[in-house]
Amino acid sequence: MTGEKNLRPFTDSKARQSIKMKLLLLLVVLGTVSAEVQDLSGKMFTFPQPTNTAHVRLNPTKQGYSAITVCHRSVTDLKRDHALFSLSTPTYDNGFLTFWQNQNQEIQSYVGTGSVAYGGWDYKPNTWHSICTTWDSVTGLVQIWFDGKPSIRKFVHSGAITQTVIVLLGQDQDSHGGRFDINQSFVGMMSDVHMWDYILSPCEIQNYMNKGSFPPGNVLNWKALDFQIIGNVLIENQADCQPQCMFIG
């Protein structure tokens, strides 16, 4: 009995070390990167391949929304459906979703139980596009801004979002934080993601579109973003080439 008591601390220590090593290995295999709040000015997320795992989880600074504005810039060459911004709640997988539906060539907005579609956009491949989506819970109206052009307003869903949300880039949530479909994954680059708990004015949205001065998101702020990368997603510098001066001797 004495021998057993003397061996337990050593055995327990080895067991704890083994568990820690397995957890560390699991994190490496999953490709999870824990990040502190970062200023991503001049940076972009690169999603280099279709998967049903790789994504970026964004951590909002606050929960509970009676209105939402979400803006982002993205570029892709996909010729299929893909999610551009996915916010889910325990009740609604598509709590607030911006989605490109390729067959009908339209941007779809989902809020809670409702959805609307907007067609007619020149969604060119291999071209950076700026997209903003606004929604007000009182009127239930949603509106899309695409490269500076506003859509009409349509009714989608009324009632505030009161439950805890999970916000992802790169995947469409078919459950609260999971059930990803590789055929709806985003492949390309994404940048300048902001979210507000109110509707930006048309002038503020135009300033965002034109890369001018606008109030940074008070829920998600690209210049102070709290996020985690899961899987093969890269943080890269955006190309910002300036024309060279020509000197005539």
UniProtKB/TrEMBL annotation:
Keyword Cytoplasm on entry: no
Keywords attached to this entry: Calcium, Disulfide bond, Metal-binding, Secreted, Signal
Cofactor(s) required for function per UniProt: Ca(2+)
Subunit organization: Homopentamer. Pentaxin (or pentraxin) have a discoid arrangement of 5 non-covalently bound subunits.
Name of the protein described by the UniProt record: Pentraxin family member
Family: Belongs to the pentraxin family.
GO cellular component: extracellular region
Secretion signal, residue range per the UniProt entry: 1-35
Domain of life: Eukaryota
SUPFAM superfamilies on file: Concanavalin A-like lectins/glucanases
GO MF term set: metal ion binding
InterPro entries: ConA-like_dom_sf, Pentraxin_domain, PTX_dom
Chief place where the protein resides: secreted
Free-text cofactor note: Binds 2 calcium ions per subunit.
Keyword presence, Flavoprotein: no
Domain Pentraxin (PTX) residue range list: 41-241
Compartments it resides in: Secreted
